[in-house]
Design goal:
Blueprint lengths: L3 H5 L8 E6 L7 E7 L3 E6 L9 H14 L20 E2 L5 E6 L13 H17 L18 H14 L9 H23 L5 E3 L8 E4 L2 E5 L6 E3 L1 H12 L17 H15 L5 H6 L3 H18 L12 H18 L1 H11 L2
Antiparallel strand pairs: 1-2, 2-3, 3-5, 4-5, 6-9, 7-8
Helix pairs in contact: 3-6, 3-7, 4-9, 5-9, 6-9, 7-11, 9-10
């Protein structure tokens, strides 16, 4: 049986290893913190059911580091080579592993605790987009093709409803109706992206609050580059606000706790737009206010799809976990819709 300890032996002499412990709470990868006496690393087993071409993750990560050059403003963890000079370890059971630097004396957040954290995250993610603004799209391969494609997610959703593998469809009629009622308006936004009016850029594509590391009150690192590649600036802006402006956890069961916090939204936008506004085109600026609804809709739809399919994609801790997650996204969308005019006016004020 392949263990994290056996994988680490392909990198280092394990006689000086102190401990290996599970780390973080990501939905997809299996992550471990590897401690030696004087330093630590992050070891991950790539979920190859999700990332069917795991070598693309390595290639894209290295390209980001190359593009950023020496001493970037924010830390991007470096990949560590094996003793045989590879940036990954493929085990005898078909597993695919990578080892990265651990960023010491930092912490991540699951929810935003104050407006300054929203601003700091905005600056970090805005810097990331700005630093890669001149990179050729063709230099990067999509780790998950059409990852944020609404039409693809709707197709998967419709197939899940049709097949009803887990016999759960009847219990979530209200949730299904919620998403069907909003799809046409958001598909118009996807058409602008597909037509090129909203341009494709190299973006992070997974800008949750917990993918920024803080040291004290300052954001110091951007992590989890698994989905970095071609996409829209709207994806990063909207997906960040989905967590940064959410007053509750992603799986909060008390839905009255869930709302879109305008103060956190404003502070994130201030930080983010200070980094990216100089190179956005007219269509991006005009449609940026729709990005939070789009990205919240997509992930909420994906959670509900996985629930209908019997929880085969996202890690779950209970039978209703994906349904709870989807309901949180629905409540967040309602809160965004209630504040839509104010959100639009606030964004427009940054471009005047």
């Amino acid at each position: 049986m392949i263990t994290p300890e056996s994988v680490i032996s392909t990198y280092f002499n394990t006689s000086i290893l102190l401990k290996i412990i599970p780390f973080g709470n990501g939905h997809i990868q299996s992550t471990y913190k590897v401690d030696f006496e004087t330093t630590s690393f992050i070891l991950q087993k790539i979920n190859t059911a999700v990332f069917t071409k795991p070598e693309v993750l390595i290639s894209n990560h290295l390209k980001v580091l190359e593009c950023l050059g020496q001493n970037p403003k924010y830390i991007i963890p470096h990949l560590i080579k094996t003793s045989t000079n590879n940036y990954f370890c493929a085990d005898d059971e078909g597993g695919f592993w990578r080892l990265m630097e651990f960023v010491p004396n930092t912490h991540s957040l699951e929810t935003t605790e104050n407006p300054n954290q929203a601003y700091e995250a905005g600056k970090a993610y805005g810097w990331f987009a700005n630093a890669l603004k001149k990179v050729k799209i063709s230099d990067f391969e999509e780790a998950i093709p059409r990852f944020h494609s609404l039409s693809l997610r709707l197709k998967q959703f419709e197939e899940a409803m049709k097949n009803d593998i887990a016999s759960r469809k009847e219990s979530v009629k209200n949730e299904i109706d919620f998403f069907l009622q909003r799809k046409e308006e958001l598909l118009k936004l996807e058409q602008l992206i597909e037509s090129g009016k909203i341009p494709k850029r190299i973006v992070h594509n997974d800008t949750k609050i917990n993918n920024v590391l803080f040291r004290g009150a300052k954001a110091v690192a951007v992590i989890d580059l698994d989905t970095t590649g071609p996409g829209s600036i709207l994806f990063d802006y909207g997906d960040a606000l989905r967590t940064i402006a959410n007053t509750a956890k992603e799986d909060e069961e008390k839905l009255e706790m869930v709302k879109f916090d305008f103060n956190n939204f404003s502070n994130f936008s201030k930080g983010y737009l200070s980094e990216v506004s100089s190179f956005l085109n007219k269509a991006e600026k005009q449609n940026l206010h729709l990005a939070p609804s789009l990205m919240t809709y997509i992930i909420g739809l994906r959670f509900l799809t996985d629930f209908l399919n019997g929880d085969v994609y996202f890690k779950t801790e209970k039978t209703s976990h994906n349904l709870i997650r989807s309901r949180v996204q629905q409540k967040l969308i309602l809160s965004i819709e209630e504040q839509n005019n104010s959100i639009k006016e606030s964004i427009n004020s940054y471009f005047k």
